Amino acid sequence: MKFVAFERAKQGTGASRRLRNSGRTPAIVYGGTGEPLLIELDHNALWHALKKEAFHSSILDMELNGKESKVLLRDVQMHPFKQLVLHIDFQRVDANTKLHMKVPLHYSGEENSPAVKLDLCLVNHVITELEVSCLPKDLPEFINVDLSGLKKGESLHLADIKLPKGVTAVTHGKANPVLVSVVAPAEEAEAAPAAAAAEAAPAAEKAPAKKK
Questions:
Q1: Residue 133: its pLDDT value, please?
Q2: Alpha-carbon distances of 43 from 6, 190, 207, rounded to whole Å
Q3: Planar angle of CA 35, 102, 16, nearest 5 degrees
Q4: Are 133 and 179 members of one domain?
Q5: How far apart are CA 200 and CA 145, in angstroms?
Q6: CATH code: domain of residue 42
Q7: What is the residue range of 150's domain?
Q8: d(Cα 63, Cα 70) in Å, to the nearest integer?
């Protein structure tokens, strides 16, 4: 995905405020072997770009002064109640250096799974994005996860899915986290305590009364 940036000469609170009033958004590019670079972006173009998933999870082509370079979106500062981007950070990408990035998980097929189709269970997406480590060329825009094989009483763990080539998951100490859980229908969940209470009632009636 490509976007156009412009060099920004002035910095500071006052300069940034005037920039925003003119329809531009202050930004910075850092990392790699170069010095931090002050840039500005057209706010309307940026606002529409931020609505696209790829702008957050893929390597971006930044055009500056007619030259293109690879960057990643790293931080966005929004106004607390206005539809206004206050500042945005990008990181330069080195083709030979592994990067850490959160990638969206795209779930599909759950409506055709035995858990949903036969047992009317609810499918809970516990994790919607996965942090991965890989070289820039191997970074996926998203990871597809097929849920058509889900069954009642089962959960889908990280070890159950196949990651793209060159991509490893970063789990921060959790060896095999749950990605998706299957929840039994509400009627069934409510019936279980009632059944237990019904079984306990005859036993209570048969129990001998305590002597005073």
A1: 96
A2: 12, 52, 76
A3: 40
A4: yes
A5: 44
A6: 2.40.240.10
A7: 99-188
A8: 9
pLDDT tens across 157-186, in order?
999 999 999 999 999 888 899 999 999 887
Same domain, 125 and 170: yes
Sign for the CA dihedral angle at 167, 106, 124, 117 comes to negative
Classify residue 140: in a domain, yes or no.
yes
Are 196 and 129 spatial neighbours (Cβ–Cβ below 8 Å)?
no
Amino acid in the structure at residue 33:
T
The amino acid occupying position 117 is: K
Asked if the structure places residue 41 within a domain, the reply is yes
Residue with tokens 């007619």: 66
**CB neighbourhood size of 158 (10 A):** 16
How long is the chain?
212
Q: pLDDT digits over 118-141, tens only? A: 999 999 999 999 999 999 999 999
Report field, pTM of the whole predicted structure over 0.85:
no
Each residue's pLDDT tens digit, 71-122: 999 999 999 999 999 999 999 999 899 999 999 999 999 999 999 999 999 9
Sign of CA dihedral 140, 142, 148, 152: positive
Q: CA–CA separation, 41 vs 20, rounded Å?
A: 10
Report the domain count for the chain.
2
Do 59 and 116 belong together in one domain?
no
